[in-house]
Design goal:
2 copies of one chain form a homodimer. Chain A is an alpha+beta fold. Chain A has 3 domains: 18-277, Bira Bifunctional Protein, Domain 2 (BirA Bifunctional Protein, domain 2), CATH 3.30.930; 292-389, Anticodon-binding domain (Rossmann fold); 406-477, C-terminal domain of ProRS (Translation Initiation Factor IF3), CATH 3.30.110. The first copy, chain A, has helices at residues 18-28, 45-64, 78-81, 85-91, 117-127, 172-193, 239-244, 268-277, 306-319, 333-342, 353-357, 379-404, 412-421, 434-444; strands spanning 32-34, 41-43, 68-69, 75-77, 96-101, 104-112, 136-145, 159-169, 199-202, 214-221, 227-237, 247-249, 255-257, 259-266, 294-298, 324-326, 347-351, 360-365, 371-375, 406-408, 425-430, 448-452, 472-477. In chain A, strands 3-7-8-14-11-10-9 form a 7-stranded mixed β-sheet. Chain A has a 5-stranded mixed β-sheet with strand order 16-15-17-18-19, sandwiched between helices. The longest helix of chain A has 26 residues, at 379-404. Strand 5 (96-101) of chain A pairs antiparallel with strand 5 of chain B.
Chain lengths: 480, 480
Amino acid sequence: MASEKKLVKSITSRDDNFAQWYTDVVREAELCDYSSVKGCLNYLPNGYAIWELIQADLDARFKATGVENVYLPMLIPEELLEKEADHVEGFAPEVAWVTHGGMERLQERFCIRPTSETLFCDLWSKTVQSYRDLPKVWNQWNSVLRWEKTTRPFLRSREFLWQEGHTIHATYEEAEERTIQMLNVYEDCYRETLAIPFVSGRKAENEKFAGAQDTYTIEALMHDGKALQSATSHFFGSGFADAFNIKYVDKDNQLKSVYETSWGWSTRSIGALIMVHGDDSGLVLPPHVAPVECRVIPIAQHKEGVLDRADALLKELKDAGYRVKIDDSDKSPGWKFSEQEMLGIPTRIEIGPKDIENNQVVVVRRDTREKIVVALDEIVVKLREILETIQQDMYKRAEQFLQEHIDTATTLPELIEKFKENRGFIKACWCGDEECEGEVKYSTGGASTRCLIEDEEWVSDKCIYCGKPAKYMAYWGKSY
Amino acid sequence: MASEKKLVKSITSRDDNFAQWYTDVVREAELCDYSSVKGCLNYLPNGYAIWELIQADLDARFKATGVENVYLPMLIPEELLEKEADHVEGFAPEVAWVTHGGMERLQERFCIRPTSETLFCDLWSKTVQSYRDLPKVWNQWNSVLRWEKTTRPFLRSREFLWQEGHTIHATYEEAEERTIQMLNVYEDCYRETLAIPFVSGRKAENEKFAGAQDTYTIEALMHDGKALQSATSHFFGSGFADAFNIKYVDKDNQLKSVYETSWGWSTRSIGALIMVHGDDSGLVLPPHVAPVECRVIPIAQHKEGVLDRADALLKELKDAGYRVKIDDSDKSPGWKFSEQEMLGIPTRIEIGPKDIENNQVVVVRRDTREKIVVALDEIVVKLREILETIQQDMYKRAEQFLQEHIDTATTLPELIEKFKENRGFIKACWCGDEECEGEVKYSTGGASTRCLIEDEEWVSDKCIYCGKPAKYMAYWGKSY
């Protein structure tokens, strides 16, 4: 994986320069790098393996709710993209256009999909006829392309990997329910699998997806106090269905519109993992999404019996279902430790001559660096417990950090002050006017509404900027 | 899945019109259909679910040999595509070109990848330095695009799903070995998982992949006697490496070229499944790639206790790990049987009042229609045995068909005659001259060399066409 040419050097300190620290971790852990195609990434084995674990977990959660996977084309005819007015307005400025096929100029342009609502709607408009054809609850794992100007590894790139779910339903209520259900699936996966806490809720009007009636979002808090929009679920009402003329004959023999949803989760989630859990030694992966849960590191491996015992241990752990590797290279133990830490591998097992003599090993936790002596004949059971403890502890620490960075404000000076001292989310009320939000953004150096808060008592009845009656309470934050 | 609107109608008979039968099965089993994007497919849930099972099986086989998954961009700068002369000559006529990004005309054109050798080489030319960085054994699951003129579902479409593996090695021998190793992985997967037999071997010069030194192929025989190129593995020598200047410093401090391979398996394999195993009632899926292994069909389900017992059975089977569904719709049993057969579900379990009284069920095999009475308290164990028997029997039948359609010829009239009477593969010798092959193709109505035969005694020492000394013995066949 790592070659000798790469010195284990100290990366930039996270608290000194968060942006540089992030870039350093991505590079040194060999997660991804920029390709020769401007703004596009090469997802390297260490990064892609994390994505595979996230995929497997999410996909199982989807299927448990009845989702079926499909694959629709990567190209969208220009005419289709234009059918829903808000949608084309949102996406046309950032799509790539195919104009030639083989040696010929095409009669019609195609864009590379920035998202696939239009293709799903086109297919359904031709195939859905009766209430018996509903609902359709489909998803695809694919890549999409948006011609972004500025890019950052995992957070924003021209092409990125994601899943996009698309559903149609006979009733408004059923579609709304599915929108929330998928938001909940995303919440469970962030909480249980990525050990990432968040705030979540409905987006304000100006932050909605192009063409959506409602957008629900998960907003996670990165270690620098900025919010990352981490997954979204959209309710379209019958807007797309009407634009694409998707009608069905109901039981009462009436022709009716369908109601639609879509929902997406991308490789941005890998960026969230880095920025929520990482530290000055590199990546820290929650065990559930760690491609390698444990690295066995023999100590004084030249001494007789050490490598044999380490190999036997490796085999025992593999047979028990652990994702485990050994580092029996000729590098020094110190180097090996640094590398395992940089890669975020949740545990390492140190095993040397003395350990073997005492019939024990030393397990070192990546998250706390705690050393745990475990009897060799108990390690197969104990390691799973340690990994589960790490998973839980990582969530608790992140949750504590989040709670410490949620505050309230009722006046603009207070809001400005709190964004200076206590980075994170600030609850404040708002009249709903975009101009007021713009002014807040300007005076706080970038804070906007991340999502609306609908189940809590308001901290004020007035807009934080203009003082007129508030329509919403929202989480405000600076975002990626 | 299926709606009442779709009548279970007889599809075209396989032996009357094979091409129409194929199209009918694809449509009626709802595997895929043409999208609004000319020549591109919508992979529908029933078809995509087969692909997911193939993916899972192949991916596990890959990983067991040390393959790591990655993802590289879908766009290739024109300049990169042009670096290897044979490669660009082969692919330039059939790529789609992106010329505009957002509102701007681009300074350089990008093609949508038809295959990704150039991107992998570009990345490695920048990152590989020492023998310690080798080998790289990478793979990606993605889609590629080739601007084909004529298309057929699964067999040939502009965009298709596949995996493309790319590897580089320090030595010629190691790369050659990997080429064969991956051919063997494909062979195992076709044989064990898809229950499809084949002939395999090296391609003749004119049938090689653009830029390859050697191409190895798996050629499966469809029920109409035509060959389907079903997966390929390529050895590049150092051709690409030299064009892209991928050099490494060896242990002896010398700067050396790397040696490269690539290998691919596509959704064409779903076409092979249909055309090898299908019959006049529709699809017949080998259990290992059947998204649903068994459909439970209650008989006289309005009678008291039937649905309850069927549901309980469903649960037992699910809990035991079967991929199983129930059809408790209000359609007639006959309709349900036809539908289960059309979808190729390997078994159905019929359970009615009498069965329950006798504490039994009737398992019906899709492949033979054999009815097997099984005691209810043994079904959880017996069903697995029945499914495994089906898997083995399907392979044996296909293998017998293949062997019955392999013959030899030593003269052109004999070859012509045998292609008339005994469709399939004919072993014949050849001088290696492309003109001779062209004449054979013309006079047989389309037969060409599918692969060379290197471990058998030759049937003649003369070229089947010109009579000059033979250089090769090959399998000749008409191909898709």
